[in-house]
Amino acid sequence: MFINGEWIDSSSGQTFDVLNPATGEVLGQVPDGGTEDAIAAIDAAYEAGRSWSSSTAYERADLLQRAWQLMTERADELARLMTSEQGKPLKASQFEVGYGADFVRWYAEEARRITGDWLPSGRKDQRFLSIKQPVGVVAAVTPWNYPMSMLTRKMAPALAAGCTMVLKPAEATPLSAKAIFDIFTDAGFPPGVINMVTTSNPAPVGDVFTSDARVAKLTFTGSTEVGRLLAAKAGASLQRVSVELGGHAPFIVYPDADPLNAAKGAAALKFLNAGQACISPNRLYVHRDAADGFIDMLTKRVNGLVTGNGMTEGVGVGPLVDESAVAKVSAQVEDARAKGAGVPVGGKRLTADGLDNGFFYAPTVLTGVRPEMTIYREETFGPVAPVVIYDDVDQVIEMANDTNYGLAAYVYTQDMKTALTAFEQLRFGIVGINDVNPTSAAVPFGGMGDSGIGREGGHEGIAEYLETKTAGISLR
Ligand code: NAD
Predict the structure, then answer these.
(1) Closest approach atom of ligand 1 to CA 199
(2) Residues 279-297 pLDDT 10s
(3) Nearest C-alpha to atom 35 of ligand 1 is from which residue?
(4) Cα dist from 274 to 51, 225, 319, 460, whole Å
(5) Whether the CB of 247 sits within 6 Å of ligand 1
């Protein structure tokens, strides 16, 4: 754990193992923290905030710039660690390190753009001034699926704004968080500005984070279930709250789209990180006229995917995070199969060829998926592409919007009017139009409904860490 600039053991002296999900091997041990440690981390962040909050934007920008440089220099070693700990193929880890580093660079630049306003008054002898100040101590809770970029997406804007931070990383990926903390420490961030408590039992730490009056903001990325719980507790403490939660993305293929191009896009997107992405498509709506070509191409692509240890050259799909993830994916596929879905490829756990100690599920296509199947409503978080055939173009937006989630949606069409109408009518925070990567450090990312509150990235991302203060000034 990292508290007040030092790597320390937990107060109980206990540790827990970190596993490689591809092999089941133990990669290392980390301290198993609890409430006392969480309080010590907040003590350190609160004390450090006294001077950090009045550092100049130029100082903060320079430190972030240095952290970006170090992250870029250490990209290979970071990617290897991430693949060992989280499982995604090495190329995907390299991509994530780049994506994560980009938040650090973007917010190094944004730090210097925190400005205020000089505002008009109805009174001749009065002026108004409004300024932005850091909110204070930020408590962050992050997931395992993108263990570095989900962290820098919070850390970089919080630090750029002048906030200090306490982090609880996911229990499956604390080593990735440690490596990012090493970089920020080597970059020269002062002791106490960033603090981290690792734990195998998150609830007590979450309780401290959401009830300590010195914590001004909770930022969480993870499941809707846990996000709802933490947001309610943080709300009771009147902490500011941002929660980036689960999703159930529709992927609409209009009849005028090139079905082969759309299927290639769907295959590239759906099997990223073995489907363990919050923006992963969970319902592929394909117009009946395009269905045969689409399903053929998707099946062909999926047949060509190699599943295995992400360290092995040529592997495109890694393991799932743990046994319960395999069980969940398997149950959704079996439910769909029992209710009549076709399974042209995949549909089983993989254990042969040295995969028996890991958590591997075959990349799968389901056809004939219908609303009564569990997979139509519940987030899968696994390598399964459910294809739903539709007939009426006028109804497909309504079908796509028929979910409590609202994170990402995708549209394939060659018609500008269809694309823009869909963009405006889809009730999702992020829409890919003939595009499977609608994310960047420069743009807002976040959801509606059960997918969360708030935005990360872009100009909005730093606003989440700033408080507005107004002065009324009399000239009398
Ligand atoms: P999770 O909710 O189980 O865990 C997320 C984090 O919350 C972890 O650090 C975990 O230790 C912690 N946590 C769990 N219970 C807690 C409690 N009672 N108190 C405090 N902390 C607690 O989710 P996960 O399985 O790690 O991540 C997968 C989910 O995250 C998916 O639903 C996915 O869609 C979502 N996700 C969303 C985004 C986004 O930006 N919207 C990005 C990545 C992942």
Answers:
(1) 11
(2) 999 999 999 999 999 999 9
(3) 222
(4) 44, 22, 7, 30
(5) yes
| Alpha-carbon span 142 to 150, nearest angstrom | 7
Query: What is the Å distance from ligand 1's center to 222 Cα?
Result: 2
Judge whether 446 lies within some domain.
no
300, exposed or middle or buried, with CB in 10 Å at 0-12, 13-18, 19+? middle
Contact predicate 366/345, CB 8 Å: no
Residue 418 belongs to domain with CATH number: 3.40.309.10
Count how many domains the chain has: 2
Tally DSSP H helices, then E strands, for the chain: 15, 22
Q: Range of 346's domain?
A: 249-440
Q: Are residues 262 and 309 in the same domain?
A: yes
Backbone angles phi, psi at 282, to 5 degrees: -115, -10
Residues 273 and 354 in one domain: yes
Q: Confirm whether pTM is higher than 0.90.
A: yes
The per-residue pLDDT for range 219-253, each reduced to its tens digit, is: 999 999 999 999 999 999 999 999 999 999 999 99
Instruction: Flag whether 235 is in a domain.
Output: yes
Q: State how far the Cα of 89 lies from the Cα of 83, in Å rounded to an integer.
A: 6
113 with 204, same domain: the answer is yes
Burial class (CB in 10 A: 0-12, 13-18, 19+), 170: buried
Q: What is the CATH number of the domain that holds 171?
A: 3.40.605.10
